[in-house]
Amino acid sequence: MLRPKMILIDVDGTLVDSVPDLAFCVDAMMERLGRPPCGEASVRDWVGNGVERLVRRALIGQLDGEPEEADFDAALPIFLELYAENTSKRSVLYPGVIEGIAFMKGAGYQLGCVTNKAAQFTEPLLRDLGIREHFGLVVSGDTLPKKKPDPMPLLHAAQHFGVEPAEAIMIGDSVSDVKAARAAGFGIICMSYGYNHGQDIREAKPDAVIDSMVELEQLLAG
Predict the structure, then answer these.
(1) N or C terminus: fewer CB in 10 A for the chain?
(2) Same domain for 77 and 171?
(3) What is the CATH number of the domain that holds 67?
(4) Within a domain: residue 73?
(5) pTM of the full predicted structure?
(6) Which residue of the set 10, 17, 21, 177 is catalytic?
(7) Which residues line the annotated binding site for Mg(2+)?
(8) From which residue to which does any coiled coil extend (predicted)?
(9) Which domain does 170 fall in, by range?
(10) For 137-154, what is each residue's pLDDT tens digit?
């Protein structure tokens, strides 16, 4: 791959395994609502499109479809309250993330985060896990009028850093990241381990798929 001038990185499923906290909050929410728990395995397939979408999926017990609006209106404040208290208690960085960030920083890449997670959760999570300081810009799901898979957050970051899209790479884990990168004219690298609704990310045809960010040094060596 051509050496980029800027690298943007997704958070959930790419840098951070946040499902343990999200699943805890989903199940606690369901308990308060008098409903059966969903379980971590189901939540792992549902994450990636923001907490509102996650709550809707939990209420109907599946990826696609819509709950009753009254049910959603009752559930969302409960989830937000729970997640504010449990943003990073169980979440962990994936193996290789620290080494990958160290390589990218050492190689002089400008680094940013682009996530669909709301800023009120993104910023504490990155700080609590000790990596916020490495990113010159964090674009959260509510920073701009549109979020991934729309290219707006990526193009916003490119403008912030003064970089052309063709000189930028997105690192993510889902088809949403691939679509956003393609629409923005970015290169796209995907992690094999992330959240993509149970589908193999290779089917989305990113430029490369890696198992650990440790592999970035060899991938970007050229």
Answers:
(1) C
(2) no
(3) 1.10.150.240
(4) yes
(5) 0.94
(6) 10
(7) 10, 12, 173
(8) none
(9) 6-17+91-219
(10) 999 999 999 999 999 999
